[in-house]
Design brief:
This protein has 274 residues and is mostly beta strands. 7% of the residues lie in helices and 28% in strands. It has a single domain, classed as Sortase, Chain: A (Beta Barrel). It has an eight-stranded mixed beta barrel. A two-stranded antiparallel sheet has the order 1-2.
């Protein structure tokens, strides 16, 4: 009897603890309107200037080095030289770069042995043809008597850039490791004297020639004398453009160097005798 009573008690306890299983109901309120912003694809962007300024590059690519203190443009806004010229927006235009207020024209590369129309050759104006340098076009050939004892042909000075470099014959890497190099097929005195130089490294004599301004002076001293030239153009040209190596009737120097990080282009500075 005692066992039956205990068994009955356990059965009642088990039934009392048994709860039917059922799913719980949840009710979660949605977020209010202020919780989420509108899609940025349709939301107008409001700037501090209320959208009045144009969409322009304001990164370091467009940064300018301020003009020299006391210069005429020292207190003029948006003047100076680009901090990174090779990255500056708008510096490679279809008609040639506009550098420091000067507009240069980049023409299609002609045949290297062709004189562009308008250059005086012989007794009249040439309309195009084979380049045969004569005294009238302005051409001085490099001869052994024009070399200095140090093996160089000339000394080039650019006062505004504090450049003072010797010019050697040729434009190979070996030559440019010593100083500037004279293009072998160009004149060394009368006419167009073309000179190349490095724009980086230990001998980066031409690293800043793209910062020259129209009117800046360049002097060239050879066995034949010393001449002073005035910068007339600063252009960014294709590396295949040889038009500025052509003989000219006027006495000038043309300087070339690479454009940093843009192997397909060159800086070209033309200066005419004053």
């Amino acid at each position: 009897m005692k066992k039956l009573t205990m068994l009955f008690s356990l059965l009642c306890l088990t039934l009392a603890l048994t709860v039917p299983a059922s799913a719980l109901d949840y009710n979660i309120d949605g977020p209010g309107d202020p919780e989420y912003g509108k899609s940025t694809s349709i939301e107008p962007v409001v700037t501090a200037d209320r959208g009045e300024l144009p969409n322009v590059d304001v990164s370091k690519n467009a940064a300018l080095i301020p003009p020299t203190f006391g210069s005429p443009t020292a207190y003029t806004l948006n003047t100076g030289n680009p901090l990174t010229p090779n990255l500056a927006p708008g510096y490679m235009l279809g008609e040639g770069a506009v550098i420091n207020g000067n507009t240069g024209v980049t023409v299609a590369p002609p045949d290297f042995n062709t004189i562009p129309s308008g250059i005086v050759s012989g007794s009249g104006t040439n309309t195009g043809g084979t380049a045969t340098p004569t005294p009238s076009t302005g051409f001085t050939e490099v001869t052994s008597d024009l070399y200095y004892s140090g093996g160089y042909l000339a000394t080039l000075k650019i006062p505004s850039l504090n450049v003072n470099v010797k010019v050697y014959e040729g434009t190979t890497s070996t030559i440019l490791a010593k100083g500037a190099g004279h293009f072998e097929d160009t004149s060394i005195w009368d006419g167009n004297c073309a000179i190349a130089g490095h724009n980086r490294g230990t001998n980066c004599y031409f690293g800043d020639i793209h910062n020259l301004n129209v009117g800046d002076t360049i002097t060239l001293t050879t066995r034949l004398g010393t001449r002073t030239y005035s910068v007339t153009s600063v252009n960014k040209i294709s590396e295949t453009d040889n038009s500025l190596l052509a003989p000219t009737a006027e006495n000038c120097v043309t300087l070339f160097t690479c454009v940093r990080n843009q192997r397909a282009y060159r800086w070209a500075v033309r200066a005419v005798e004053v």
